[in-house]
Amino acid sequence: MARQHDEPLISLPTRTELVRLSNAGQPQTLNNCRGANLDFSRLDLSGWRFEHCNLNNADFSSTQLEGSHFKGCRATGANFPGADLTDAIIDGGDFSNTSFRGATLSSANIMRCKLTRTEMTEVRALDVSFNEVLFVMATLSGFSFKNATLKQLDFSEADLRNCDFRETIFEDCLLRDARLHDCRFEGADLRDANLGGIQISDSTHYKGAIISKQQAAELLSQLGLHVL
After folding, report:
1. Which of 140, 190, 3 has its CA nearest to residue 110?
2. Cα distance between residue 108 and residue 138, in whole Å
3. What is the per-residue pLDDT across 71-92, written as a single tens digit (0 to 9) for each?
4. C-alpha 86 chain-centroid distance
5. What is the rounded CA–CA span in Å between residue 91 and residue 110?
6. Residue 166 falls within a domain, yes or no?
7. What is the arithmetic mean of pLDDT over 48-70?
8. What distance in Å separates the CA atoms of residue 100 and residue 204, rounded to the nearest whole number?
9. The domain spanning residue 73 has which CATH number?
10. Is residue 145 part of a domain?
11. pTM above 0.70?
12. What is the Cα–Cα distance from 167 to 149, expressed in whole angstroms?
């Protein structure tokens, strides 16, 4: 059984129990919950806390998760399409191979977690914050990072086509082998980003961005030029 925030309890809830708790209208805490393959879809779980839970392959389709908090959870293969995660916190854990397609992530804070091969397309994500996230081979095409400060994000081999990075600051980020066609980088600060051996043929993807002298030298060296 789940309890309210002041009484967390290890639990193995059923769909029936989840519906009852949702209808009660009080935020709950699931601590070490064995929630793999559970159906949370279309429930109102606003303000709920999930602490160190196993949520692998759980279904959160169209679930209300406004102000929810996921702490150190394992949620590989979970589904969040159409879910409302406004003001939610995802802190730590593994959310690889998840789908957030069409979800709302406005003002969400996502940090210190693994989102390898995750899909985040068609999302609403105003003022979302990402820190120390592995987006390796993730699909983020069309995502807007405009005016954001991105810290320690690994976009290696990610699909970033049509993303908006205008005025974005990259701090210790990796863009190695990312797909960057039709992205917008006007005013983006890439001086602290690892561009993964950028080639002259790739430079057009970064039109309007700010790069370091070292990055510029690497580009010009391919033309046989040296920056002194």
Report:
1. 140
2. 18
3. 999 999 999 999 999 999 999 9
4. 13
5. 6
6. yes
7. 97
8. 30
9. 2.160.20.80
10. yes
11. yes
12. 9
Task: Name the phi and psi angles at 190, rounded to 5.
Answer: -105, 10
Q: Which residues of 176-202 are buried (b: 16+ CB within 10 A; e: fewer)?
A: bebbbeebbbeebbbeebbbeebeeeb
Whether residue 178 is contained in a domain is answered as: yes
What is the overall mean pLDDT for the chain? Answer: 89
Domain limits at 170? Answer: 3-221
CB 198 within 8 A of CB 179: no
Domains contained in the chain, number: 1
Cα angle 30-97-103, degrees, rounded to a multiple of 5? 70
Residue type, 148: A
DSSP 153-185: EE-TT-B-TT-B-TT-EEEEEE-TT-B-TT-B-
Q: Which amino acid is at 123?
A: V
Residue 195 in any domain: the answer is yes
Nearest CA to 184 among 168, 156, 163, 157? 163
Label the pairing between strands 49-51 and 109-114: unpaired
- Taking residue 106's Cβ as centre, other Cβ atoms within 10 Å add up to 17
| Token pair listed for 15 | 């769909």
